[in-house]
Amino acid sequence: MSEIANTARRWSLRVNRVVEIACVVLLALLVLDVWLGVLVRYVIPLPLTFTEELARYLMIWMALLAVSSGIAYREHIGVEFIFGRLPAKMRRWLAVSFDAMAFIFFALLFLYGLGFTIRGFSRFTMINAIPKAYPFAGVPLAAFMAALQLLLVGIHDFFSARAPERTGATLVQGEE
């Protein structure tokens, strides 16, 4: 059974690696965009108006995608005071229950986010008049990635040889 847990952990880390690379790329683009905005506003007077709007959407996309990375490292909120004092079997079921509740939340967010994104094609951004569906697409994408990470982390928690010691126990350190 722990082979299933190890496979889920490996897939979780692979997915997380892709998300982390995407977040780093978004951060680099955000920094370059902000530098360009400062440059064209105070140094070189060019009429580039897209920088503020682009910075806003890059930051939102990056923050939303980072949620799945937090889930992969088990850095999301948990009630440590009670969780750590429970017996191992109860901790396992409680961790899987937390994962299931969060999975349902993110699955619903994904479904509603798709509708929100589709409706965004009829609305346009203020400065550049691009369809808001493109910035809005970050919500269902991030919710999908978070739900996928929760599924993998939940499989790991359920099939692991040891019950999680705490709700924030990372999957990256140590072996089963």
From TrEMBL:
<dbReference type="Pfam" id="PF04290">
    <property type="entry name" value="DctQ"/>
</dbReference>
<keyword id="KW-0813">Transport</keyword>
<comment type="subunit">
    <text>The complex comprises the extracytoplasmic solute receptor protein and the two transmembrane proteins.</text>
</comment>
<keyword id="KW-1133">Transmembrane helix</keyword>
<comment type="function">
    <text>Part of the tripartite ATP-independent periplasmic (TRAP) transport system.</text>
</comment>
<keyword id="KW-0997">Cell inner membrane</keyword>
<protein>
    <recommendedName>
        <fullName>TRAP transporter small permease protein</fullName>
    </recommendedName>
</protein>
<feature type="transmembrane region" description="Helical">
    <location>
        <begin position="134"/>
        <end position="155"/>
    </location>
</feature>
<feature type="domain" description="Tripartite ATP-independent periplasmic transporters DctQ component">
    <location>
        <begin position="34"/>
        <end position="152"/>
    </location>
</feature>
<keyword id="KW-0472">Membrane</keyword>
<feature type="transmembrane region" description="Helical">
    <location>
        <begin position="54"/>
        <end position="73"/>
    </location>
</feature>
<keyword id="KW-1003">Cell membrane</keyword>
<feature type="transmembrane region" description="Helical">
    <location>
        <begin position="21"/>
        <end position="42"/>
    </location>
</feature>
<dbReference type="InterPro" id="IPR055348">
    <property type="entry name" value="DctQ"/>
</dbReference>
<comment type="similarity">
    <text>Belongs to the TRAP transporter small permease family.</text>
</comment>
<dbReference type="InterPro" id="IPR007387">
    <property type="entry name" value="TRAP_DctQ"/>
</dbReference>
<feature type="transmembrane region" description="Helical">
    <location>
        <begin position="93"/>
        <end position="114"/>
    </location>
</feature>
<keyword id="KW-0812">Transmembrane</keyword>
